[in-house]
Amino acid sequence: MKKGIGNMGVGDAFDDFMLIKEVSRGVTSNGKPFLTLILRDATGEIEAKLWDATKEDETLFVPEQIIKISGEINQFRGKSQLKIMSVRLAQPTDNVYVTDFVEKAPVEKQFLTERLTEAIFEMKNPALQRIVRAFIKKYQEALLTYPAAAKNHHEYASGLAHHIVSMLAIAKELHKLYPELNKDLLYAGIILHDLGKIKELSGVITTSYTVEGKLLGHIPMMVEEIGVMAKELQIEGEEVMVLQHLVLSHHGKAEWGSPTPPLIKEAELLHLIDLIDAKMNMLNRALDKVKPGEFTERMFAMDNRAFYKPLFEEN
Question: How far apart are CA 269 and CA 24, in angstroms?
Answer without folding.
Answer: 39
